[in-house]
Amino acid sequence: VSAVPVVQSLSHLPVIVDPSHAAGKRPFIAALAKAGIAAGADGLMIEAHPSPDHAMSDGAQSLNLDEFAALMPQLARVAQAVDRSFTIAGVEAG
Length: 94
What we know:
Blueprint: H1 3-10, E1 16-17, H2 19-23, H3 29-38, E2 43-44, E3 48-49, E4 63-64, H4 65-81, E5 87-88, E6 91-92
Parallel strand pairs: 1-2, 3-4
Antiparallel strand pairs: 5-6
Helix pairs in contact: 3-4
């Protein structure tokens, strides 16, 4: 997360944070996603799966669909708090 502003100062390209792989474990994904937004990331890549415990790969670092849906409004509130916009699948959220 600390690399976000550094990379943005070095590149014109969007900086995307991947809290799923950074955490490696489901319980830490939400906090890292919120931190990524607060740090100014241009986007997030969050793994979600209907049944992470039965996923062929990356299950331990995936949210289930209900967890993913519950996280979206939390991320929208963080984005609003730091004067950023937040879009979910092409729909403006907050």
